[in-house]
């Protein structure tokens, strides 16, 4: 159960604002106007604070109820602009397209790729295979993990097999494009976690009982 005590706004209003922002390609100012039309006066800075405060808690609840993923992964990175500079969003999906994990990093190197790999495997255990492009950093990261843990991960470099993760990047980038750039790495990482969370829910990755629409699934994470 996520606590909403101390807020001037009702729990439902806060969750509406967060979900609409991470689910659809809109800016905070556009969301401010949308809520005003519904009789809720809240400025864009407050909306930002809601996202920064509550998305990590919602993400934690989701991870506790996330469905298992397959043992064949596709790993790739895409670009996100933070304070006018490009940063790197590492992402992996399984061969069915389910999101394995994601990580925003300042650098694109072996160390960053290894951080992502440890995070993903910490959530799901080691895969049997990882398909990558010709990135030397990703190769070195997988080899480092293998040497340390004797995981026996097979590395494949088959470009067309990685199309599925490249296509999946677009669904995330479509939502973030109108956000007009991020002001800090932390706020970018939190917002992207919310976007990824809603994307995973839409892909049916939340373990649940009964049938619920994606919006209902999102709200259920708050308890």
Can you tell me the overall shape? globular
Just name the CATH architecture of the domain at 72-182.
Answer: 2-Layer Sandwich
Q: Please identify the top-level CATH class of the domain at 72-182.
A: Alpha Beta
Number of helices: 8
**What gap, in angstroms, lies between the N and C termini?**
5 Å
Would you count the extended β strands for me? 5
- CATH topology of the domain at 72-182, what is it called? Nucleotidyltransferase, domain 5
Per CATH, the superfamily of the domain at 72-182 is: Ribonuclease H-like superfamily/Ribonuclease H
Q: Which stretches of 5+ consecutive residues score pLDDT under 50? A: none
Helix content: 40-55%
Elements, N to C (H/E): HHHEEEHEHEHHH
- Any idea what the radius of gyration is? 18 Å
**Share of residues in strands:** 15-25%
Q: What is the spatial order of strands in the main beta sheet?
A: 3-2-1-4-5
In this structure, how is the largest beta sheet organized?
Answer: 5 strands, mixed
């Amino acid at each position: 159960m996520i606590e909403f005590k101390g807020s001037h706004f009702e729990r439902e209003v806060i969750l509406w604002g967060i979900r609409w922002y991470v689910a659809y390609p809109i800016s905070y100012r556009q969301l401010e106007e949308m809520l005003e039309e519904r009789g809720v006066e809240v400025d864009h800075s407050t909306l930002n604070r809601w996202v920064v405060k509550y998305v990590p808690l919602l993400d934690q609840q989701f991870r506790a109820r996330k469905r298992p993923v397959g043992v064949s992964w596709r790993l790739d990175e895409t670009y996100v602009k933070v304070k006018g500079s490009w940063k790197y969003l590492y992402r992996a999906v399984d061969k069915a397209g389910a999101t394995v994990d994601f990580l925003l990093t300042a650098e694109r190197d072996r160390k960053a790729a290894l951080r992502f790999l440890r995070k993903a495997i910490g959530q799901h255990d080691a895969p049997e295979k990882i398909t990558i492009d010709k990135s030397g950093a990703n190769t070195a990261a997988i080899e480092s993990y293998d040497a340390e843990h004797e995981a026996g991960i097979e590395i494949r470099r088959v470009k067309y097999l990685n199309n599925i993760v490249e296509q999946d990047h677009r669904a995330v980038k479509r939502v973030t494009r109108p956000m007009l750039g991020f002001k800090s790495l932390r706020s970018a990482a939190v917002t992207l976690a919310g976007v990824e969370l809603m994307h995973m829910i839409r892909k049916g990755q939340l373990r649940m009982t009964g049938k619920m629409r994606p919006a209902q699934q999102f709200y259920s994470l708050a308890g």
